[in-house]
Amino acid sequence: QVQLVESGGGLVQTGGSLRLSCAASVRTFSSIGMGWFRQAPGKEREFVAGIIWTGSTTYYTDSVKGRFTISRDNAGNTLYLLMNSLKPEDTAVYYCAAARSYNYPSRRSEVAYWGQGTQVTVSS
């Protein structure tokens, strides 16, 4: 049984902060890359942030650089996304994603497991 469970979403105002968590039951969590994707209504699911298996290297899509921070706690099998300076365009359902390898999943085809998603809504 493999399960990724997100939490921490909610409604915030522009400029606010939110921290998302993803609790993973994947047995090999500490050996695989992880990431966050998001999907807004009427749009495709897109890559937001990624982190390799050790947590030593991270990557962000341009629109969130300097505002979002991805991290992982391998001992606790948990992935995090700290979101600062939130904007209305950040509004989406955010999904935790586990890759098929040590590298982070940068596209949907590289994701082996998805979380159920958590809604983030940023009001003007």
Short structural description:
With 124 residues, the protein is mainly β. The protein contains no helices and eleven strands. The protein is 0% helix and 48% strand.
Helix content: under 10%
State the separation between the terminal residues, measured CA to CA. Answer: 40 Å
User: What series of H and E elements makes up the topology?
Assistant: EEEEEEEEEEE
Described by the principal axes of the CA atoms, the overall outline is globular
Low-pLDDT windows of residues = none
Count of runs of 4 or more consecutive helical residues: 0
Number of strands: 11
Class by SSE composition: mainly beta
Q: What is the alpha-carbon Rg in Å?
A: 13 Å
Biggest β-sheet, characterized?
7 strands, mixed
